[in-house]
Design goal:
With about 400 residues, the protein is mainly α. Helices cover about 50% and strands about 10% of the residues. The chain has a single domain, classed as Glycosyltransferase (Alpha/alpha barrel), CATH 1.50.10. A hairpin with a 5-residue loop joins strand 5 and strand 6. Helix 9 (about 245-260) packs parallel to helix 11.
């Protein structure tokens, strides 16, 4: 069915906020550096509630990678300053490289390694952002680095029963599906950029993990935490469902179907229906942070990123009920999360009484906002990305 006027109108408001307020703010105040080179030290980790840089003393590589993605997309969508900012962040990220494919978790403000731990979540976003940045520039180097990182993960972080360690050195705690989910996002971006069968193999391996271990076929929902042998742990860790992650997987499975012709949409539909039944407030349309495996209520607290992932998944469902909810989600984003805060910023969390309950403006949310907007734009017929660069041939990549 055609996109209803309510969604189209809200998309225009969203677009104005993003290009007139958000990109200019995060491309200036949100960047770090000297007066002559305002983004030479990458992106700030977060802002204070009054919209000023909050100098935390550290910078996570995942945040730098997310901002690289955001400004790469800005450039694709015609924001003229996006390319230069993306280039500066990319160069700052090189400070985190400890070897071929081996990246630190945290840097100092100026780019010295603060925490050398290899974190799977951060590595996933490095691969993801380099795949997109390579596509923007046509430069084979970031593509080569993305592949090096995948090979390093496979060599040093692999578990015998499939999947990878959360960190290296290994830290205590259950295994998690979340970093594997972002690895799939990265692998799909890399495959779409190169069109190479070599990159498709990694995609297929991660899809197999989802089908074999992450997705609960009986209940139709997605586990978060697992033992070393991919068993669901006892107690709270095994009982929690995060609707935001289910929405992310719905979108990823749809991407897999679009790019590869894969067959995973039945699982995606089951997760979507689970969320619709148990995770959406019937009055406001807000999506809750957590519910239980059986759909039981766990409170009404909500976070921004969950709503943007709901945009990505709900925009795929071509029916009237979903479009009505999509309009609600975008409205909530614009008039709850983007309201009563500095222009171009956001509120990140609301408690059960819908009261703002955060003490910072996290930079990391911008990746979710931009990716939600990009998917919404696809429903409208744009943005249109360039074709795969001829420089991404295997022979050219092997020369680096």
């Amino acid at each position: 069915m055609p996109v209803p006027p309510s969604v189209k109108n809200l998309y225009q408001v969203f677009s104005s906020w993003l290009f007139d307020q958000a990109f200019p703010l995060w491309g200036s105040i949100g960047c770090d550096g000297t007066e002559k080179h305002p983004s030479c030290w990458g992106a700030h980790e977060q802002l204070t509630l009054d919209g000023k840089p909050d100098l935390t003393g550290y910078k996570r590589m995942r945040v730098q990678a997310r901002q690289l993605y955001a400004f790469t997309q800005a450039s694709f969508m015609g924001w003229s300053k996006g390319n230069a900012i993306a280039e500066s962040i990319y160069h700052f990220m090189q400070n985190g490289q400890q070897g071929e494919g081996w990246w630190a978790r945290r840097l100092t403000r100026e780019g010295k390694i603060l925490d050398p731990t290899a974190d799977l979540y951060d590595l996933a976003f490095i691969i993801f952002s380099f795949a997109w940045y390579g596509r923007l520039t046509g430069d084979p180097k970031p593509i080569h680095q993305a592949r090096q990182t995948i090979r390093w993960i496979q060599q040093y972080m692999a578990f015998p029963k499939g999947g990878f360690k959360n960190t290296l050195p290994l830290e205590k705690g259950y295994r998690q599906q979340n970093p594997h989910m972002h690895l799939l996002e990265a692998a799909l971006a890399l495959y779409e950029t190169t069109g190479s069968e070599q990159d498709l193999v990694f995609v297929q391996q991660l899809i197999a993990l989802f089908k074999n271990y992450f997705f609960d076929l009986q209940r139709g929902n997605l586990g978060e935490y697992f033992t070393e042998n991919w068993q669901s742990p006892p107690g709270k860790a095994g009982d929690e469902i995060e609707p935001g992650h289910q929405y992310e997987w719905i979108w990823l499975l749809a991407e897999y179907n679009r790019l590869v012709g894969g067959h995973a949409m039945s699982e995606a539909i089951r997760m979507y229906e689970f969320n619709r039944r148990f995770a959406v407030d019937k009055i406001t349309g807000l999506v809750f942070n957590k519910v239980k495996r059986d759909g039981s209520f766990m409170g009404k607290s909500v976070r921004l990123w969950v709503q943007t992932e709901a945009i990505r998944a709900t925009s795929l469902m071509d029916d009237e009920k979903s479009y009505n909810h999509l309009a609600q989600i975008i409205y909530n984003l614009l008039y709850r999360f983007f309201a009563l805060c500095p222009s171009g910023t956001w509120r990140d969390q609301f408690n059960d009484r819908l009261q703002f309950c955060d003490n910072k403006i996290p930079t990391s949310s911008f990746y979710h906002i931009v990716s939600g907007f990009v998917q919404l734009g696809r429903v409208m017929g744009y943005p249109r990305y360039p074709q795969v660069s001829p420089q991404f041939t295997e022979s050219n990549l092997s020369k680096i």
